[in-house]
Amino acid sequence: MARIILHADMDAFFAAVEQRDRPELRGQPVVVGSPPDQRGVVAASSYEARRFGIHSAMPSREAGRRCPHAVFLPPDMKRYARVSRQVMAIFGRFTPLVEPVSIDEAFLDVTGAQRLFGDGAAIAARIRQAVKAETQLTVSVGVAANKFLAKLASDMHKPDGLTVVPADPAAIRAFLAPLPVGRMWGVGKVSERVLTRAGFHTIADIQRAPPSHLARLLGHDAAAHLYALAHGEDARTVEVTWDEKSISRENTFLDDVTDVALLERTLVDLVEDVGRRLRKAGKYAGLAKLKLRWKNFTTFTRQVPLVPPRCDDYSLRAAAQELFAAEKLLAPVRLIGFGVGQLTLQSAGQLNLFETAGQPVRVEAVSRTVDTIRKKYGAAAILSAEAKHTQPALKKKELLARKKLTPGTSAKSDAEGG
To answer: Could you say which DSSP state residue 313 is in?
Structure first.
């Protein structure tokens, strides 16, 4: 039986929840994110706000400039998460094969559900009806033979849209042909520039190109990937168990920072939060990453391997401090971030030749004990040595310059706009 994949994407999710719960905001341009007079970015915008060119990851100040009368609201992630669970539960009534991609979108394999609920289009229609009836929100759904096509289709007729991609190979190629190459999965800004400079503007151009020509531009593997997608081929399956590939945390300052003590203390906070989330997930990290963004928006990352993989605060903090110490502060810092990657289930008890027996196990146990104490008595119940040392150096105005930490994972790339 041919596969039937749906991609369901909630429409302007955060902003739509706010407009649903606050009727006075309906019909108004709503922006969820930082206020326009502060550093930060747009997390979501209503369709009324999008008419002014406002989009996610745009600096809030730019959004305020484009639409001065927009209503800016802080994100309420707990409320959005509750609604997300309600929506995902609706998806689960139609098929057990649901792969959440983020808080507001998911892939569904409904191949085996057709005998109960009808073909793909009928199932998509029933899902849209159920979501609207039970949440008063709308969802756009794409129906296709694979993930790539379903994802493209769900974005075709937003909001509240339903798009069915034809199953015939020739019809699929015709469906894809007029779309820009940037719509293809895996084509980022850099590879898009390479392709357009070489004369590849639409997917039709990729379809007509000799694979050897693409390989000279992008390499054999990337060329084969794009050529397959251009012909509507995607072998990825719906993965019911979604596994986080990385964990990160970053902080955008309200004012650019040159004070090293403030930067070091912020980095310690980031490391401890990432470590706590890593241990809660039962994972170990094989890679530590530092992210810095200067005043002029120049951004870079540095990384160092963790051998063997670790999850304790001591190892993560040492890696972060090593990376930070190696960098010269060439300009005031706008953003600092820390993350870990190459997550595994490997035990930290596997030592290398330069470690004392039992040391990784002991420091991991200490970190887990600290997690338990902080969960029961609060984050300030135990401070690291670095925190005790640097805390007096933080002046009140510097503390006020700190902004709430913003999470980031591999499911969605970090916004580079602010």
So the answer is: H
pTM of the full predicted structure? 0.66
For residues 62 and 133, state if they share a domain.
Answer: yes
Catalytic residue among 18, 48, 99, 105: 105
* 18 is annotated as an active-site residue: no
If asked whether residues 12 and 113 sit together in one domain, one would say yes
Expressed as residue numbers, the domain containing 223 is 171-230
Amino acid at 126: R
Would you tell me how many other CB atoms lie within 10 Å of the CB of residue 376? 8
The reply to whether 153 and 182 lie within a common domain is no
- Per the structure, the count of domains in the chain is 3
Q: 339-394: per-residue pLDDT in tens?
A: 998 888 754 444 333 334 344 555 666 666 666 665 555 655 555 554 444 444 44
Does residue 240 form part of some domain? no
The residues, ordered by sequence, that sit 6+ positions from 360 with a Cβ below 8 Å of its Cβ are: 308, 310, 312, 315, 348, 349, 351
Residues 312, 390 share a domain: yes
Domain match, 203 and 71 both: no
Same domain, 26 and 134: yes
Average pLDDT for 253-263: 88
User: Where does the pLDDT of residue 214 fall: very low under 50, low under 70, confident under 90, or very high at 90 and above?
Assistant: confident
Say which CATH number the domain at 301 has: 3.30.1490.100
Q: What is the pLDDT of residues 35-63, one digit of tens each?
A: 999 878 899 999 999 999 999 889 999 99
Same domain, 158 and 184: no
For a pLDDT cut of 90, what percent of the chain falls above it? Answer: 56
Residue 238: inside a domain, yes or no?
Answer: no
